[in-house]
Amino acid sequence: MRLDVVSIFPDYLAPLDLSLIGKARRDGLLDLTVHDLRDFAHDRHRTVDDTPYGGGAGMVMKPQPWSEALDHVVAQGSSAFPGAAERVPTLIVPGPGGEPFTQQIAKDLAEEPWLAFACGRYEGIDERVYEWAGERMPVRILSLGDYVLNGGEVAVLAMVEAIARLLPGVIGNAESLIEESHEDGLLEYPVYTKPAEWDGRAVPEVLLGGNHRAIAEWRHEQRVQRTAARRPDLLPPVAAAAALADLEER
Ligand code: ADE
């Protein structure tokens, strides 16, 4: 998979050299390039922002550096796909006003050959950039959650990790992708390791025996209860109410 990230803080993306994502890059599974938006500003101060029309607080990112940066990403990246004329990336713009980023979206994006991320800062990017980009490539505006970050960089770190770990070969033990939160709409069950007793707290008895059926049932029950307690919005209302009532009875 090819990934391009455009930011005014390229150093913010340094963690993408570490751990499993760094290894995936070294193994050739991920081809990731970070671009400095300021390289596409032409004045002495490498200006990428200006005051908002209509007034208001803060600064807005200028359209011209963005169009040049994205033209550059497309031109440079197209040569990495020989034979596929007019190939373009899907452009992802992280922002608190976007569609919620979910595991399903991560899965869908993991199927794509090429993604580009545009990290906004300040009060955002001039709206015309979205129109301009939308005429050239698919554009998705995605939010990490209902809170405001200082810019898109942290969101890109999270999104790239969520997407890249789904690529074949990135995670050594592919089974660990199957039994995890959000895979089937339920949160993950609690896990324990040795010792069997720690700080006066025992590991649930059922996990110590070898009854695999009983263990599977216990884990499923735990997942339903956890989901009802922490994320009732993920369960159908009747199931959530029943699971909560069951919890209160204990
Ligand atoms: N940029 C600023 N806030 C954000 C959020 N909640 N999600 C994604 N990108 C953002």
UniProtKB/TrEMBL annotation:
EC number: 2.1.1.228
Residues binding S-adenosyl-L-methionine, per UniProt: 120, 144-149
One CC-aspect GO term: cytosol
Subcellular location: Cytoplasm
GO biological process: tRNA N1-guanine methylation
Keyword tRNA processing: yes
Main localisation: cytoplasm
Catalytic activity: guanosine(37) in tRNA + S-adenosyl-L-methionine = N(1)-methylguanosine(37) in tRNA + S-adenosyl-L-homocysteine + H(+)
Keywords assigned by UniProt, alphabetized: Cytoplasm, Methyltransferase, S-adenosyl-L-methionine, Transferase, tRNA processing
Top-level taxon of origin: Bacteria
GO MF terms, alphabetically ordered: acyltransferase activity, transferring groups other than amino-acyl groups; tRNA (guanine(37)-N1)-methyltransferase activity
Similarity-based family: Belongs to the RNA methyltransferase TrmD family.
Function: Specifically methylates guanosine-37 in various tRNAs.
Subunit structure: Homodimer.
Listed name of the protein: tRNA (guanine-N(1)-)-methyltransferase
Chain's gene name: trmD
